[in-house]
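TEACHING EXERCISE
Course module: macromolecular assemblies
Task: Read the component lines below, then compare them to the predicted structure of the full complex.
Student: A.B.
Group: 4
Components provided:
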Amino acid sequence: MPERCLIQVDGDSMEAVVGESLAVTLLRAGRFRFRQSCTDQPRAPLCAMGTCYECQVHVNGVWARACLEAVREGMEINTHG
Amino acid sequence: MKKRVLVIGVGIVGAAIADRLQAEDCSVTLFESYIPGGGTTAAAMGHLVVLDDSPAQLEFTARGVDLWRKEPLPARCEREACGTIWVASGAEDVDEARAKADRFARKGLETEWLDAARLREREPSLRKGLAGGLRVPGDQVVYPVGAARWLLDRALERGAVLRREQVLALEMGGLRADSGRFQADAVILAAGLGTSHLLPELPIQPRKGHLAITARVPGLIHHQLVELGYLKSAHGRVASSVAFNVQPRATGQLLIGSSREFAGFDASPNRELLGRMLRLAQDYVPSLAQVPVIRTWTGFRPCGPGNLPVIGPWPASPGLFVAVGHEGLGITTAPATAELMAHHIVGAASFLDPDPFLPGKVAHA
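Instructor-supplied answer key:
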């Protein structure tokens, strides 16, 4: 069985799978707004391989591309940064 | 009778020329086989900056900036009236800044000397211990692709025609393109690095540069920042060099330059040079170490035989005109180039002395 853990997304606790792509975890949870454009349009993963930067979020206060982050226990994700 | 004019190349220079000549009641056809503004223009930083490496360059860039300032650019051109600060590191730079201020003042251009304390007030993100800076409030920043597209659209609205095809050869009184022969009163070669294919006598060399753009960090930098040593990099002919140059963009992102290198048409990144460029930026603005760079790219400046572009009639071919070799100043000087071309084609009054730019000066230099 895959190991499970707890992460925080914009203040909400959710259960996730350790080692899964953070982008996949967020999409699976129905969270489609990863960041916003200059004109406040929602942005979400496009390339899913680290090239397009559309899935940028803050992880524990640091910029990260969600598609390149592996989920780990206690991660705090902020999609409003 | 309207003059029929063919413009080869729709970078920002070709677009500006077409726009101006169409306004002078010429009938302009533009030729571009690639995306308009998709070559050198698309890779450029887009500073509208007065430079003073030579008296002619000062006149040329000041005129370009002045003409741009009068244009009603829409929001998509991302104009920022942020001004430039020429950053002085040491005593030698301070002397250079004073000399620059004098040269600008003689042209009626406003500058403001910022001592170390005032520089820190204006740009707190710059490192401590800098000697000061010379602020040039009239300089601006635009998004080059947007600005080129806007000029092209205005030319088309004024009746110009865009042909998306390749020009294969220059001919007496016209040109030959994919779809056939075109006759005209004047042919203007504004093809940048594509020039030498059509006119081998005018060698235009690619001078590669790297740029990097960051994530959004609004408010970190307020002016375009350039080190006073910039011109040494821009106008030296050494194999490779970097100079500190950071721009705040309308999106809140920072555009970081600059590098110069002769490496043929190899667009692959030179990691050593890119690294030097980014370390230099971080040396001036230490907090850049915490700002993610989201993209880097390279582009080619069209570098002619001299330190000025070549603008005017080509002596060996009646009816042929050139406007090429703008190196890193094509965005700034596009409207001034168009004004010179209007002088040559329809005898419009020229604000600038056309002489230093004439092809004859280059061919026999």
